[in-house]
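Example record for the data management plan.
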Amino acid sequence: MSVLDMFASALGAFIMCSVILFPYYKKDVSQELAETNIELKKQTVKLEIETAASKELKAAIQMQAEKMDKLLKINSSLNQCEKGLNKCQADLTKNFLLIQIDWKMKIGVDLHVTDASGNEFFWEKTNRSGRDFPNSKAQLSITTIGDSSGGIQVWVDPQATEGTYKVECVLPDIPDSDVPIAVSVFDRFGRKPIVSGTLRKNTTRSLIATIQIAGDGTVAVR
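Corresponding structural encoding:
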């Protein structure tokens, strides 16, 4: 290729570039630049708004999560309180029951107590060892004040349950006369009015009192 051909090719390329760029020669692009800047500012403001909204959303989500955590803790505490309340209510239905008989004559008297489960406690089955009635905490104790002064017998159940309890007295020997006897009943609220009874001289076994424990733990003696 000659120098003339090379020069002609370069001139042709220059002419093509000139033709392409001619519409933009000395053209005022300030308007387009201003519009571009305005659009850029709009997009920047929009981005800032979206960023702020995103932060607010994150803060709201965080706050909601904290509230949910607090609610879960409150719910857990309420469950614990409810369990405690249920236990308290269950404990309120439990009762302490003590039955005491005493007499003032020189004669032997045996106390027999039949609990709500049908267990009969007497001198041969006192349950002091826990073997007579393994499912019961009740015990019968025998205390004699003196042959000339009569005696005292006590039955106690620290976990008396709902139901009917029978208090009976048995005379090992038939006496020459009636035997006055007093029955004292104590529950968790204190002492009940004393029940007075009489063991008839011709009767070896007598029902002295009936005790009823209701579902709410209240005790009635009759």
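Summary line stored alongside the record: The longest strand covers residues 150-160.
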